[in-house]
Design brief:
Elements (H helix, E strand, L loop, with lengths): L2 H24 L2 H13 L1 H16 L9 H15 L7
């Protein structure tokens, strides 16, 4: 492993620690469990939600813990953005 790969791996591990700390502080147990279940099935969707939550936390938009129902709403909102219609002619 060269130095560039080592730095990338270190940055990735640091980001994971930041995400974990944020979820512990700003999410209820039910919300964390829900997000972890989603992560098993659709890791890319869970990653988008985690990044959106991190941004909101950093901007000070989240002041209290996020509940499971709020996570469900966020997941629905994010997954709806991906939907599109295919029209056949």
């Amino acid at each position: 492993m060269d130095m560039g790969e080592y730095k990338k791996e270190l940055e990735k591990q640091q980001m994971e620690l930041i995400k974990k700390a944020a979820t512990l502080k700003f999410m209820t147990k039910g919300a964390r469990e829900r997000l972890n279940r989603v992560k098993l099935i659709k890791p890319e969707l869970a990653e988008k939600v985690e990044m959106a939550l991190l941004q909101a936390i950093q901007m000070g938009q989240i002041k209290e813990q996020i509940t499971e129902s709020q996570i469900i709403s966020i997941l629905e909102e994010v997954s709806e953005r991906k939907k599109f219609n295919i029209r056949r002619r």
